[in-house]
Every structure is written in structure tokens, then in C-alpha cells.
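Priority: low. Protein: alpha-L-rhamnosidase. Input follows.
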Amino acid sequence: MQYKQLTIILIMLFGSISPAWAGGVQVIRLKVEGLHNPEAIDRVAPLLSWQLESSHKGLWQEAYQVIVASSEDLLAKGQGDLWDSGKLLSGDSQGIPYAGKPLQTNTKVYWKVKVWTNRGESDWSAVYHWRLGLRYQKDWKGRWIGFDRAFPWEEISTFPTMGARYFRNEFVPKDNIKSATAYIIGLGLYELSLNGQKVGDAVLAPTPTDYEENVKYNAFDLSDRLRAGERNAVGVVLGNGRYFTMRQHYKAYKIKNFGFPKLLLNIIINYEDGTTETISTSDQWMGTADGPIRNNNEYDGEYYDANKELGAWDEVGFDDSSWLPAEYVQEPGGDYQAQLNENMKVMKELRPVAISARAGQRYMLDMGQNMVGWLRIRVRGNQGDTVRLTFAESLQEDGELFLTNLRDAKVTDTYILKGQETEIWEPKFTYHGFRFVEVSGLLDPPILEDFVGQVVYDDIRTVGQFETSDPMLNQIYQNAWWGIAGNYKGMPVDCPQRNERQPWLGDRAVGAYGENYMFDNSRLYRKWLEDIFYAQRGDGSIPDVAPAYWRYYSDNMTWPGTYLMIADMLYKQTADTSVIREHYPAMKKWLAYMKELYMSPDFVLTKDSYGDWVVPPPSIEAGRGQNADVKRPSPLISTAYYYYFMNLMIDFATLSGQEGDIPCFQQLRDQVLSGFQEAFYQPEEGYYGDNKMTDNLLPLAFGMVDEQDKDRVFEQLVNTIMVKNQGHLSTGLIGTQWLMRTLSDFGRADLALQLATNTSYPSWGYMVENGASTIWELWHGNVAKASMNSQNHTMLLGDLMLWYYEYLGGIKAGENPGFKEFVLAPVMPEGLDWARVSYECPYGQILSHWERKNQQMHWSIQIPPNTRAIIQLPEAASPDLSQYPDLEGGRIVLPSGQYHFTW
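Result:
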């Protein structure tokens, strides 16, 4: 397109400015080490962060002061008895380490911050707090309790039927309560209540781990909920979760099982007179397994008999004489750690869109969206009536549920009525991936208002927005959002519906990068790095699934290598070097392990397990009924990835202060490159390997192609897409992770847009055209053999979401991690009229909105306070740069504010 002379219009940043501080500076959104729940942190020097808001353009922080106090009263007086940083000349507002007095276990502290900027001084921020939890195992009092056995009405078989365990205790605190905190480790899942009321809003807590390695505790402030000087009742329900695994006595060589549910709870009460009391689990507690939750299983659902309800069992005065004394049980074995990532929560409610009658007094409910969670139901009937809810992602041609792709997961919730006029119920300890629900056992025909879908995923904010002039791009984005969110389950799982739901590493390698623009997921992925670290064996091997609930140590580069790629993503997006420093030794050990076992004398990494997993069959007919679970190992892929990881390790060595390792990495990288070229490059034809898309994509993406050969190799890639594939992709999980960015980096964003908007097979749009509301596991998911055919996977998104944000939106961290200084450089391919993309980075919201209008290009941007952006303008634009520092060509640097460009 021909560009006219560029004009720049400066717009003052007014946004959503509060009248109380318009024209000034406000400090907002204080964070402690990114912690979601400040009631429990076990870091002695957590990192403090904040954002700025202001109506001023070009706002830059010049200094700050942090005050930390042991009480709100002292803080209000400006007395930082724990730490007063004084006025520090610094523009830093992210990752400031606490540098005050050492804190004691179970200590709650309060803090605030003020800043000085080039536009004036802020007021003090609002008051925030954090609590140093129970740092050491010896800080915990009492013992683990549970029932390490099945009861007569339970069956421990391949498909176990084991109910929930209920525990209770009563206690009388003194009158002068100053504060009270509950610390709980309830395995596999728990729900805590005090005096008949649930504590917190989490569901399916705590976050899952390899319980033999580490277990996470949650903490809750009970200061305003305890009845001083009176009896109080505490109750805990334990669900099975991943601890008592979903399949018992089945493939023990593969599936980990940890035992029966168990509980450790401390309620620490601090009194005004300086004394402390701890209420802890012991054999003085009472428990039962004879409650209404008769079975709970992540794969199979929950069975609830309302006739077995226990009444006010978690309130004072309940008669528990028929219950059993709690029994001491063996601890789980893993280290006790504060949970820093979010618990799951009911994040949305979704109303069904249709209900239809089926034969046999059955009804089919359509939620209108493939979702993850469960149903809350409203029913009435006779005592003993049985209502069953069976969940599926899609229907067969005859309108019945399609269940074959769920394998042996029973996916059924059962509710036994007690015969009251109206009964409302939802499960506690299971979840489902579904759009359709078959409902049976109802006394009366149901109405839509009898059902509410509870959408469940980790309690993380959506921080990105994406919309364009192309409805298909927008729908694919929505499908991606629903799939990604639904598969956040304290770890990123592959799918939410069948008998799997495992945290496969390969599924999220590049995908997690794009997800970070959509969700505030850094705490989740930091936790996942821990899971991978704990799953590493002593010899250095890393599994394909972490936590290693399935013992798959197949040894390959692409799945375990996600370890490095997630760490790299977190560093680039947040500038937190600790994720690199903490995991550097384990990464180095794994790469040495792979080199020793599988590198040939010619420096080819010979071991691969999956190849380019789930490449699309050449046509829909060729894929009909096909089993997609076929491994095609590729030494080209594994060798290319080893080269890529060597480059990452060179950067990681610098960040970790291990510069002495760099020469070894450099030498090995160069040797691997030479071996790769010799083994896989076909100089006569100008392509790699078998000239598959992924064979050429990886060396182009990783910078492995000699300069004089780049155009030839890229032409082969384009020819494969345009001629052989008739304008379509032919990549599987691996190649799709590098597809969109590589095409754009080599000047073919138009071709990337074509792939992104295709509606014929194979494409993301083909999924949409065939009824998908999430992302399929397979490109041919509407015809493939059902044994491996999830309709809610994220792995085939590849780098599409990353391309949406970093290319169509142009928002990139660039060479400087963490977005203190970032790049705005959108591609604006013909065929797309406009794109509006926003992302809340650590400093605030970045906005990029471009539009073709009246034969002109318009581009509006927003740069958050305390940052600056490197603006890359189209080459054909001719801006007047006299008032800006010219970096190179059309690149200019702009401070915070809103700007509008026209050319």
C-alpha cells in the first residue's frame, strides 16, 4: 500500500481517571511477589511491586519510599518499625526486595508506598499486607489425621467408589483475640468451614503437586470470624482429588497413587496479652465417611445422597457421638510449602441455551459453549428419586451424547433426592469438560432456569483483549480463551473431559507464551516449573508429564525442553531472573544427560519420541477413522531443538552468573549446527530433511540456515504451503509453534493471515465451521478415531495467540524484558481492516489499535506510566523525527501517554 506523510497527534492520558486525583499521580495495584493470596508466603524477602496511574503524558518515576510496619496504626503514623526504605532515587516499581527486619513465623505485616515522578509527588498508596506463614515443618503443631482404609460401603477397585471424609472439632478461644489464622493442608481436596460457613471461595483446593515431593498449604484470616470466649466449630470435608487417584489397582507401573485422603490443620490465635494458642488436628477430632458424598472422582463424577446429609455437622453443639475418633495417619512425605499460585474458583456462570426431550424421560441440555466445571441444579421430587447428569462435548448424529472419545471416564454426577419441595445441589470434588448434559430421573419436565453452568478455572485475571475486523479471527480467539481457561487446573492440563487430564509438557511450550498476553498466569507457570524440577530424576532425566502422575520418562528434546521455554517466557514477560537462577542447574543437568546418552559422534541428537505430533492427514477422507496416536520420531527435530536450547543456556548462564559455562555451550552449539547441516540439509534442492513444513520451519526459526541459503529454504516452505498444500498448513504440534512468527519475520504476514483465516481443512477456522467452541486436539477432529480425539485441547494453537498479540497487535517485550521498555511494531497485512489489541503488562495497560480508513492508516497507542515504547513505523511512512531520538530508520522512542498516528 502507498503511505502518505505521517502525522503524529499527542493525546493526554485520561483513560479512567478518578476526579479525586485527576492531574496527579496515584499508586495502585500493589503486589507482593505476584502473590494472589497474601495470607501465606514463605519467602523471607518477598518482592514488592506497584503500578502508577496518572493523567500526565510522559510520566516517569524518579524515586520511591516503602514503609513496612507491624500494625496498621503504626503505618498510619508513618512509622515503619519493620522497614522504612527512605526516599530512594530509582525508577524501579517492580520486584523491589523487602529489606527490613527479619520476620517471624505467622507474622502479618502492612505496607504502603509513595513515589516521586517528573510530574510531581504521589500520595501514599492504599495499605496492603502480607503474612509470613509457617516456614518450617516444625512450625506445624498436631498430627495428620484421616482414615487409611475403605469402609464397607466403599469399593477400592479399578473404578473406585470412595466417598468424602468429614472431620470436626470444637474449641473455646479466650476473649481478647488479636488475630487468628487457619493454615490447612487437605489432601487430595478440601473444603474448610467455621461455625457452619465455608471459609474462602476456592474450589478443588489445594493446588495439585507430586505429594511425595511437596505439598501446598493455604491460609485464611479468621480474625473477624471467631467467636471470642465462646465455643466455635471447625469442619473439614476431604475429597479424593489426585491423592487417591482416579484409577486404583490399574497400571501401577504407570500411574502414581498416594493413599487415602488426610488432613493437617492449625488455627493459630494471637491474643492481645501476647500469648498464642494453636488449635490443631489430633485424635480428639471426630470423623466420618458416612456422609452424603458417597463417591467423588475427577474422571467419573460425584455421587451425592441427600438422605445421608449430616445436618449442622460443622456447627457448635452437633452430636457427633456416632462418629469415629480421627485416626493418626502417615504424612504425605513432601515438603510443606505456602501456595503462591491461585486456587481454582467458580469464575463465571453460564446459562444453558436450549433443552430438549429425549426418549425414556430424558432431557438434553445444551450450554451453547464447550466449558469446564459442573452444573448447579434445582430439582424437586420424591425421596429416593435419582437424578443423573452425564456430560459430553458433542452429540452423535442421532442426538445422543457422544461419549466414545471420553474413553472409560464415566463423567456422571448423581443426586439422590431427600423429597423436599425444592432442592439445589452442585458437586464439590469433581469437574467436567462439556457442552451437552443428559439429565434423567426428573419428576417434572425441567426448564432452563433449573440449571446453571459453573465455569471453573484458576482464579487468574484476564489481562488481554483482542478484536479485529475479521469475525473468524475473533471466534478463534474466543475458542482459544475458553480452552486455555478451562484447562488451568492448578497446573496446565491437556484436556478436561476424558480419563487423562494430565499436565503434558509439550502442549504448552510456546502456547504458554501467548497465554501470558491473555491471562495473568505467571504464578501458575512458576509453580509448574517447580513441578518439573521435582519430577527430574537424579540422573537428570525429565518426564513428559509433570507432576509425574503418569511415569513417562521417554527422553526427547521437545517435551522436557518446555522446562527451558517456560522459564524463558517468564523472564521475558516479567524480568524476574529468579526463575532462571533457581532452575539453571537442573536444566544444565538435563541437557548433559541427553548429550551423554543420545548424541552421536557427528553431534546429531538421535533420540526423539513423538516427532511432529499429530500432523494433519493429507485430506479429511484420509483421516476418517484414523488413529492419531502414532509416533514419528525425528532426529532433525531433536537436533534442532538441542541447538536452540544451547542458545538459551548461553543467555541463562549470563543471567545466573555462570559465565564460565558459556564457552562450553558455544562450542557445543556450533558443533551441533555443523552436524545438523551435514545430516539434514540438501544443498542441491535447498531444503532440510524430507522438505516437510516443520523440517524447514525449525532451522529458519532457530537461525540455523546459512545467510546465502535462507531465501531458498523459505521459498521451499512457501511452495509447500501454496502449491503442495493448496494454501494450508501441514504442521503438527511442533511445527505449529513456530509457523506464524517465522512467516511474518520473513515478510509473509499475508500468508500467515491466510492460514489464520482459512475455513477449509486443515485450519483453526475449519474447527469453527464444524461446530467447535474450543480448540480440537486434532486438525481432523470431526472424523478421527475417537480413542484420541479431545474437543478441548490447546496444543494445536501453536504460536497463533503469540502472533495475535506480538504481530497483529505489535506488542513485544523486545530486547528489554518485563516491559519497562517495550516495542510497538504491528504488522498490518492486506485483507485485515483493523485490529484492536490490549495487554496489561506489569506496569499497566498497553493498547495498540490500527485501522484502514478513507485510504489512510490510523494507529492509536497507549503506553503505561513509568515505561517507554520503541515505536516501529512502517517503512513506507515518512515521519518527522526532529523532536524524537531516531534509533534506526522509522524507530522512535515515546514516553507514557496516548498517541495517534496517521499516514
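The CA atoms of residues 74 and 80 lie 7 Å apart. The first helix runs from residue 72 to 76.
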